[in-house]
């Protein structure tokens, strides 16, 4: 919903009347969900003519934070707010907590008032006395820390004793007491504590650790089980959504006992969910969260989850996408209860559309898309809205039989054109398309819209929990209006925040554009956040699911998750499962002068860092000969204290082998480019250099090591949120893919198969790509070794 033109002006005028400052009012109008909620709350509280600012601020809080599971009690709370019986934010938060716990059940007025501090008056004198007592208790600490004292902790102590005290008065008194005790703030008060002091204090912290470990912070129930927030199927008789109409009436959405009992008899009381992707593109990491929510809830409750293809648009759907979706769902570890298609229900949907017309809730319209848009913006009814029911029935039948041209008629739901919710503006239920359907064939030339079909099929499949992302929240009204109009069972609807990740785009339109226009190498390009791309890159489904679970099933909108948080989970997984191996990306030749040419030693190298000496399966053989190759970056002509690589006259340890010392350097004609290094090795291993290098040797004299191609992938976009840029394509990272055609690898990789993952020591985790051939293996870098999550990455 987007509030347009005069609607914006009306909203601004109303929001200013209740005392919101202009900035808050304008920001509210930009958020369609909050705008709709605030309109509803203002009208419910009968404050269309305005109110005092203190009351208005509380009204705004009700609109933004009121618990959705207790909407039936919101009018009661608003009476308390308007009458100033509840007059502080602390009281309001307590009311939210109380009502959230009782949900739609009845409650005792006395218990509610006690829980919210109704009638409790805390005088300025009482607050002053408490502030003085707290300052006396903490005087020595405050004098030591001065203005670096945590004022929030002091205010918390005040709130603990007087939970219903006016927080502004408490803050004012605390600030005054700070000034009385400390005087004017000095420059020293604003200086940050020196790092040296922090270091000195560290030992004291270490001493305290055992005590902390004895009583670790317990994770919340939601952290242990993110699905604990969802109600049981038998509870779906409670009101949890209200639809406000412009005529003042209210639809309180819930099932009748008879309807719910009929539903429970079919389902056996089990949870039924659905994962309903449109088969018009490849799934991305956002769908991984949807799968985790839909399949995860069903699995946790011992229920069932449908994989339902939402195939209402025959022009955009392809068999390729259907096959891909089914394959990816299985790869992600989920087992559908049944695979269904919205098109399986086309006959049911048609018959229910006829019933909707017969009940006076739908009509055939002839407006063009441009006219529909204009009339919606002006909140005007279509000229055909009130045509006779019999006429709409005849025309709808003509539409079905192909007697009306495409674009000349639609079936629209007769909802509420004066609603504050744009998604109640007589949404389209059916449109004409003379296009064969990939699944249903050429039987139909009219196709249902998402807004019409989605909720009905949820009901027909006896879905208990209809879970979707927050942009669909304003469609709740339409969802329940339609089910109510048709007397159908109503699932429990709940929305969660979309999963957005930095440095990428995830809209299907943008993804389709960069794939079609060759910015990337197909839908499974390892730089994309498509699940096919992540799989090809070497990311495991378990790492993705751990990432999604760690984020939680939140409702905080507009958040964007840093990519390094996903990479953290990838490393956690691959560190346990990827065997180590030696590979050199940019080889620099080293000739061991004190090892006889043609000599060859087979050395043991560890596949795992904790490999036990008696476990031969944890080791692999690496040849060591008189010609080895190290990374070009591991050699410098000029040494320095903080450099641990090789330099003239300096030693370094070849991992799993011997220390070597550079004795000579062969330069090219330009006298700068290093062509070759001469070195001596220490067979006794008595020297103990600090630097440890990875390396690969010639397996036999004059024979190069195993050559492999390595592809280094980085972020596809330079900006964290490229989708918000006007010229987002200009933000594509030109270095997002770097190909190294000839890297050298240990012989252990010779028989590596597509999908095998390894840790290239000191370089990162790499996976065998599908482009590999018998002649040459191709490796994709999955992720580097360095983990930045937890060091500022959130």
From TrEMBL:
Keywords: Aminoacyl-tRNA synthetase, ATP-binding, Ligase, Nucleotide-binding, Protein biosynthesis
Biased composition (Basic and acidic residues): 200-212
Species annotation: Hibiscus sabdariffa (roselle)
Domain tRNA synthetases class I (E and Q) anti-codon binding residues, every copy: 692-769
Domain (Glutamyl/glutaminyl-tRNA synthetase class Ib anti-codon binding): residue spans on this chain: 578-682
InterPro entries on file: aa-tRNA-synth_I_CS, Gln-tRNA-synth, Gln-tRNA-synth_Ib_RNA-bd_2, Gln-tRNA-synth_Ib_RNA-bd_N, Gln-tRNA-synth_Ib_RNA-bd_N_1, Gln-tRNA-synth_Ib_RNA-bd_N_2, Gln/Glu-tRNA_Ligase, Glu/Gln-tRNA-synth
Catalytic activity from the UniProt record: tRNA(Gln) + L-glutamine + ATP = L-glutaminyl-tRNA(Gln) + AMP + diphosphate
Gene3D superfamilies referenced in this protein's UniProt entry, alphabetically: 1.10.10.2420, Glutaminyl-tRNA synthetase, non-specific RNA binding region part 1, domain 1 (1.10.8.1290), HUPs (3.40.50.620), Ribosomal Protein L25, Chain P (2.40.240.10)
Family note: Belongs to the class-I aminoacyl-tRNA synthetase family.
Enzyme Commission number: 6.1.1.18
All residue ranges annotated as the Glutamyl/glutaminyl-tRNA synthetase class Ib catalytic domain in the record: 271-575
Domain of life: Eukaryota
One protein family per Pfam: tRNA-synt_1c
Keyword check for Protein biosynthesis: yes
Protein name as it appears in the record: glutamine--tRNA ligase
Domain Glutaminyl-tRNA synthetase class Ib non-specific RNA-binding positions: 10-166, 171-248
Region (Disordered): 185-227
Composition bias type Acidic residues, residue spans: 214-224
PROSITE patterns the record matches: AA_TRNA_LIGASE_I
